[in-house]
Amino acid sequence: MASPLIRLSHITLQVSSAQKTIADLVTKYRFRPFAARGLDGTSSCQVALRHGGVTLMVNENRQLVRSSLLYDWPVPLPSMDTACNVSYEVEDLPGLCRRLANEGCRLLVPPTELRDDAGPVSYCVVKSIAGNVNHTLIDRSRYGAPFLPGFQLLHSDDVSAGDVTSVDHVTYACPRGATPGVMDWYRRCFGFQHFPLSSGEDPARGFEISGPQIGLRLTSIACPGHDDVPKIVMAEALPQNGTNQIDQFLRHHREGGIQHAGLSTPDIFKAASSLAQCGVVFAGQPPSYYTDPQKQAEILRAGLEPQHLSQLGILLDSSTGSVEEDGRILLQVFTEPLFSKDSFYLELIERRGAQGFGEGNIRALWRSMQDMMEDQSQKQQEGATSH
Q1: From CA 61, how far away is CA 81, in angstroms rounded?
Q2: Which spans are transmembrane here (predicted)?
Q3: 158 in a structural domain
Q4: What residues contact residue 64 under an 8 Å CB cut-off, 6+ apart?
């Protein structure tokens, strides 16, 4: 079926301290608040921030009253800051809501209309089958202002300004065995289809990577013909010895949730350098990654220098396409988690013709995040001991 989704609107962060989260997003990640409500304390604090073409909404979950939130519904994780809502713009909201109800979906907020001088906006909130994830579905086709009714614009905003252009993908951490049900739900409700990460991939098995310190199954889905709707990637840990980042995430999100979002950038070196100068910490790679002769040759064939990549821990993969034949490469790097070590984080991704993710990058990114989380755990233990 054709997807009813038009484009991504925003991703919501539910936090215990809006002031701290907004300060980090502004000073470190270069987001800029452009619309807000509740700053006077009369309602729940909700602040929309933008960096380039990416919009995040920060909802403060301290004593949230469900009816006081606009365009959202709080998730029951009072002690855990989290990303919890992926909001989409849609058409024919009433028809879509009827179809979702017929599919047995839980509508947390039924179709609701809000308006101001710029016109009406209608929305609903549906509970996803995936963990603590909700989706706000918004019809703003008759609305003439930059954001949404109920929000005060803080300043005029230049969408083109910034180092990131869009959300490339959103990754869910899923309990083992949950992926087929999640895929089916998104297919039936929103028209997502399997997007293979490797040639000949079986949708029922996904893309499995196993080896020392890694056991991972990834499955990706996309909305055909809707480039403004990010891919969804589902990540499951394979049975293995020891805990890993998926299992650690599931300790606080028992049914799963949003682990990270990949932000597209036309120049990952410029974007990563800019964020690093502002204090963002990236997951680094061991020096052996950049001194390996095979990897060095791959980087050089792409017209880049290994030393340039190593300065910020940027990874390069050409396994999604032959760099010798057509020059398609993928460049990626993960940031530190925004909240605790087991929480949501961001990724910078630059696609030079590559559409998949690349096994080499997946392995290296997994290990870099494992190392970062283990390092954070050790620092927390040392801090607790010193007190």
Answers
A1: 9
A2: none
A3: no
A4: 44, 74
